[in-house]
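not sure who needs this but someone in the group chat was asking about XRE family transcriptional regulator from Acinetobacter wuhouensis so here u go. i didnt clean anything up, its just raw.
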Amino acid sequence: MDKRFKPLTPIQQMEKRLSVLETINNHPDWSFYQVARFIRTELHLTLNDMAKITKIAPQTLQKMEQPGSNPTLKSMQKLLDTFGLQLQIKVK
C-alpha cells in the first residue's frame, strides 16, 4: 500500500476494487496500458506491491504502463487474471 494514503478497511478495499472494475467496464476504449496504470493507481499500490500480487517483475509492470509498450500476452493475462478481468479482441 502506498504510504501516502491512509490504509483502507477490508470492506473499503472491496468497495474500491468493485468501483475500479466498474470504471474499467465502462471504458472499453481504454488501451491496455491505461487499464494497467488505472488499476495500480486507483488501488493505491506501489509497483512493488503490484509485483507481489501479480507475480510480475516491477520493471515489467512499469513498462506495461507506458504508451507504446509491447507486453507479452502471458504478462497481460497474469495482470488481468489477478483482478478478475479478461482480454478481449473486438472489431473496430
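also The chain is about 55% helix and 0% strand. if thats useful
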